[in-house]
Amino acid sequence: HEGYAPAVTGGLRGAPNRRRFPALAGHALACAAAIFILSTPAALAVDAQAFAERLKVIAEEQGGEMSFASAEAQGDDVVLRGVTYKGAKGARDLTFEAVTGSTEDGWHVGRLAIPDTDVAEDDTMVRVSGLVMEDLKIAGTTAATPSDPTAAADMFPGHASLASLEVSNGDERLFVVEDADLSMALGQDGVYRSSFAIGSFSVNLAATDAPRTDAAIAAIGSETIDGSLRSSGSWDPATGEVRVERGTLSVDRVGDLSLSYVISGYTPSFATSLKAFIELQSEVEATPENRNAAS
Asked: What is the pTM of this model?
């Protein structure tokens, strides 16, 4: 009605009290600031130091020596700077993309491109170029279940590719591999399936001291064996069955060799025992006293 105004005694119902408004506003701003801080890359970043230390432990367990100057998280990526590895020349930076997980449960790396690397031992040099790994699973400290690929290997790449690998002795090339590709996957039935291909390889027979080398050179009419390789297979950890279903070795000037075979008994426990035996043998060979005692 015109001219009518309701009496206001304590403010309109539902409206905030003016005395409380500054406190409510401050509380809301604090919450907003907390949400913003927690959503920044620094807060969401992976534990780079823990990730790097886990890699170092696995390298040592495999008989290698790895060190790094620093570990830095950049969002979901981990950058290790000044990485050195036993036998490899110089230090390099490695970027592990899309890293998730923990040391206890294991880590997962979306992609890792490794810079070209030279590894020297005595007079032998191994040069690795264009190595890329994807869908890389890294074992955690908690025992892996049979359905976890890291139960078979501490580092399990779903896919890996290699531009080239060259082995040389002084100025002489011994062995060259180009365009290698590997894919591995664990199926829902618990069976690992893989495919492997080498676009081309070359073995320098003239550079070896192997018996019957001269006869082999004369037979193929060349000092090198050149060719390619393709294969696919599977491994069932439950039964220990290893199966190569389609393997083809093609050698220039010679022909194609098709391979298919089945190996039984290669269970995870056998693989673990074999790994322990190889590690023990490496330790014995590394110590002259042990080497003499073993002989």
From this structure: 0.74
